[in-house]
Amino acid sequence: MSDDEIILSELSDADLVEQMHDDLYDGLKEEIEEGVNILLERGWAPYTILTDALVEGMRIVGIDFRDGILFVPEVLKSANAMKGGMKILRPLLAETGAPRAGKMVIGTVKGDIHDIGKNLVTMMMEGAGFEVIDLGINNPVENYLAALEEHEPDILGMSALLTTTMPYMKVVIDTMKEKGIRDDYVVMVGGAPLNQEFATAVGADAYCSDAAVTVETAKELMKRRHNVTAAGATAA
Amino acid sequence: MVEAATPEHTDLSVDDEAAFASAGPARALVIACGALAREIVDFRAANGFDHLDITCLPAKLHNRPHLIPEAVRTKIKANKADYRAIFVAYGDCGTGGLLDKVIEEEGVERIEGPHCYAFYTGQKAFAAITDDDPTQFFLTDYMVRHFDRLIIEGLGLDRWPELRDDYFGNYTNCVYISQVRDEALEAKAREAAGRLGLGYVHRHVGYGELAGFMEAAATAGEEAGAP
Which residue in A130, A177, A155 sits closest to A224, CA to CA? Predict the structure, then answer.
């Protein structure tokens, strides 16, 4: 052991959380798992560990990715480290009744098997308190419709990496319109080749450029949705 | 077609921002992705298209596809006064239609297709392959030549081989669509597939629709140069 090696268990709470942000940035999964367990032993609520240590750490990673300081490999390492922490916290969050921000169904569209972005969004949305039903990759419209009926989410998220597959989002939204269920859900779309213009053209409620933006947009849209529902109830 | 730090992505060396001037007075210019530079220059030489100039943008722009449209626009504007016809050898390349908007606004032409895999293979043939099975990872000659730099180092697999599943877990086969017949390259492509843990398929497609595009550019250059 070198003299300057950091012993996580010897750090104060504040220093440990700061160190966990650094460890997430560096993609150190074992250290993150150790940090989570230490904070649990110190009596921290699972939800507080999730938000203060993990989500905040990934928020910093997200900013540096957006600014071109970090690249995909580094973000994946960080995400895998966060997954390690989430694995410990998930059952505890369920037990302790952490606040629920909403429910989302998400999947990559038919013909598209690229799920790195979708997986990051899933993780960050879970971290923000959303229940996420992940349909995986290559989803035809029938998969989305079945999941909407079964899980009754607030949000439908669709992801595509390819210029050739992203038009399928319109197929899904148009089918929802035909069935008269489009306005029952917030529809959010994302993926490298997408932009706001495309999202508007296909009839989505929001275009999300990255995982952090997705979380913020989802929170905002949920707030608006609740306001509309509340206003409707008052008017009635 | 791995996400973000994809194939023809990351940097180039000799092809970066290079200009390949023709021998005689040129009237047409091809603005190309650096990942196509070698093939385009070879094709021009093989066909004697001496009146066609070629200039390239860095292949690493694919790491940030949203930067491609304006980079192409800048190149067009810088050359518009010197050429009667300009052609753009780029697929949509993940710009979500924004490159085509630039193409339309600047009044130039682009090779058809979403990416180089499609125009090398042929649009219909490529769609048939991927519609049938989207789990194919494509390699071109350029990508095979620079496999270590683009894929292994570019995706961080040299440092973190455990990320292999994040990138390639949903793929089944590596399809090498070769431009030239070269046994050494084919061996390297086969080895690359093995390193990624994927099955291997080789299809020799040549220059595909890039050939017709270059011929059209050369013809336009001749016509523009005629008295």
Answer: A155
Q: Between the CA of residue A48 and those of A53, A55, A86, A99, B26, what are the distances in Å?
A: 8, 10, 12, 11, 66
Contact A111 B130 (CB under 8 A): yes
Chain B nearest CA to A71, separation (Å): 8
Does the interface ipTM go beyond 0.90?
no
Residue A148 has a CB neighbour count (10 Å cut-off) of 19
Residues of chain A contacting B65 with CB distance shorter than 8 Å: 192-193
pLDDT band at B50 (very low <50, low <70, confident <90, very high): confident
CA of B148 vs chain A CAs: smallest distance (Å): 15
> How many whole angstroms from its chain centre is CA A202?
22
With an 8 Å Cβ cutoff, is A40 touching chain B? Answer: no
Q: Which residue of A has its CA nearest to B128?
A: A111
Q: Tell me which of A29-38, A61-70, A182-191, B115-124 is least confident.
A: A61-70
Can you give B1-40 as a three-state secondary structure string?
CCCCCCCCCCCCCCCCCCEECCCCCCCEEEEEEHHHHHHH
Looking only at the bridges linking them, the beta strands covering B52-57 and A130-134 are: unpaired
Distance from the A116 Cα atom to the nearest Cα atom in chain B, whole angstroms: 7
- Residue B32 φ/ψ, nearest 5 degrees: -125, 155
> Where do the domains of chain B lie, and which CATH numbers do they carry?
7-115+208-224 (3.40.50), 123-204 (no CATH)
Tokens encoding A20:
């966990």
The residue count for chain A = 236
Enclosing H/E stretch for B60: none
When pLDDT is cut at 50, 70 and 90, the band that residue B170 belongs to is very high
Q: Is the predicted pLDDT of residue B7 greater than 70, yes or no? A: no
* pTM reported for the whole predicted model: 0.87
* Closest by Cα among A94, A109, A82, A27 to A211: A82
Q: Do A163 and B167 touch (CB under 8 A)?
A: no
- Does the pLDDT of residue A97 top 80, yes or no? no
DSSP annotation of B85 reads E
Q: What digits encode the pLDDT tens for the residues B66-100?
A: 899 999 999 999 999 999 899 999 999 999 999 99
The pLDDT of B16-33, averaged and rounded, is: 73
